[in-house]
Amino acid sequence: xxxDYNQLFIxxxxxxxxxxxxxxxxxxxxxxxxxxxPAGQEADIDGAVAAARRAFDDPTGWAHWTAYERAVVLDRFxxxxxxxxxxxxxxxxxxxxxxxxxxxxxxxxxxxxxxxYYADLIRRTPAEETRPSFITGSTLVRKExxxxxxxxxxxxxxQSLTFFKLSPALAAGCTVVxxxxxxxxxxxxxxxxxxxxAGLPAGVLNIVPGSGRGAGMHLVNHPDVDKxxxxxxxxxxxxxxxxxxxxxxxxxxxxxxxxxxxxxxxxDLAKAMPAMFSSTLLNQGQSCFISTRILAPxxxxxxxxxxFTMLARSLPIGDALDKSTAIGPLAxxxxxxxxxxxxxxxxxxxxxxxxxxxxxxxxxxxxxVEPTIFADVTNDATIAREEIFGPVLAVIPxxxxxxxxxxxxxxxxxLGGTVWTSDVERGKDIARRVRTGSVGVNGYTMDHGAPFGxxxxxxxxxxxxxxxxAAYQQLKSIYVP
Length: 481
Ligand code: NAD
Known about the structure:
Blueprint: E1 3-4, E2 8-10, E3 13-15, E4 22-26, E5 33-38, H1 42-57, H2 67-83, H3 85-96, H4 100-103, H5 110-124, E6 128-132, E7 138-145, E8 148-152, H6 158-172, E9 175-179, H7 186-198, E10 205-207, H8 212-221, E11 227-231, H9 234-247, E12 250-254, E13 259-263, H10 269-280, E14 291-297, H11 301-314, H12 333-348, E15 352-355, E16 372-375, H13 382-385, E17 392-398, H14 401-409, E18 413-414, E19 418-420, H15 424-433, E20 440-441, E21 455-456, E22 459-460, H16 465-470, E23 473-480
Parallel strand pairs: 1-5, 8-9, 8-11, 9-10, 11-12, 13-14, 13-19, 14-17, 16-17, 19-20
Antiparallel strand pairs: 2-3, 4-5, 6-7, 7-23, 12-22, 15-16, 18-21
Helix pairs in contact: 1-8, 2-5, 2-6, 2-7, 5-6, 10-11
The structure holds nicotinamide-adenine-dinucleotide.
Nicotinamide-adenine-dinucleotide is lined by residues 152-157, 161, 179, 181, 212-213, 216-217, 220, 231-233, 236, 239-240, 254-257, 288, 387, 389, 415, 454, 458-459.
């Protein structure tokens, strides 16, 4: 049985789309058709933005409610999202191949967790503060919602990345038009169902799936959209930044990554390796922040290559819906083609595959690629410079700490990274010298209460934590001499 939607969530109701075109969704593990949703067009974006604008401009509406009033509705929204948690996980795993054991912890919990977090935060964050003036009197400094937000998200962690935006935007008093990725649309429709059940006022949240260049670009360019919050590829991010620049529209960009995992010479590999899977191969490498360049001290290079080879060989590969699966399929046939072409380039440029490199035997359906470890890679190789977004790691030797930091920073990207050491203080010192938005010492568990984002080609701005709320607020000063 397939899951089919024929309407879009616009203005608090399920509305007929402007065209009969549909987005078909296939299982990454079996390649079977599993559902469809309407392919939103420019006219649907226009309708959704108009609804969001009306809801925002309503003088007694969402933006003007007290923080407490919004928080009450957001708490109900969080409850409804949590009720749908197993369904989110199932749908996402079927669509993009994320193993359920990974999805349960992230995609199942993050939507409700972040919605509750920002409901709590907005209750505790005063919207106004009176400051003594430099000259006479005082100034009232107000935090106001930015306005209508266009939120555009990718397919790899579709719910987490959606709620990195929705939860703080709604808490701040913004209204939102969400455009999910065409590859993960079935889960996005559940958000509409949860919003409806929670009683979110009409127009506060609207969901329009559609193509990036069509619906997505139209949303970015829409004059009634005040801010764009985008997560996706660096190429699309540049196009969106240019469009926002022309319109002087605020934009947050969370883009690609090619992070380094630095193993210091004192690392206890036996202790470190169990945490390496989620730091390097999570979601079969379809994770923006993972460390896909492994920097190994030259004198321990062979030992590190062996450890990663063993790790890659130990990971159960299979259907994403199977609880024992650690490595599922890639999200699409196109993604598998891309990853396979990088593997071929890696070999052509002199890299040595120690394990993997092909498609796993016995899995004839589904877009699977074996976890692949490359040794003898230098940092100028294509597989060390470009984001592959697949289960492919490059192990690169370095001479000393300064050399490790130099190689880590020799990248167009600057999103994440890890440092592995027996001496946490030394690890923090190295982490301070790595030019990225976040670094983990002896592991990487994203802290949803701390700012997350990138430098260089990895993006602009930060999401999560109190800073993630501030990204949807603007400041106004009211002078009273
Ligand atoms: P993508 O850029 O192809 O698409 C992302 C979203 O943007 C989709 O909804 C797509 O339809 C839309 N889109 C594409 N072009 C657009 C345009 N010109 N105008 C408006 N919308 C447009 O990325 P993807 O393949 O879905 O996702 C993978 C990429 O996302 C990787 O590069 C990955 O590193 C990045 N990513 C970054 C983070 C982060 O937090 N930095 C997190 C996850 C993924």
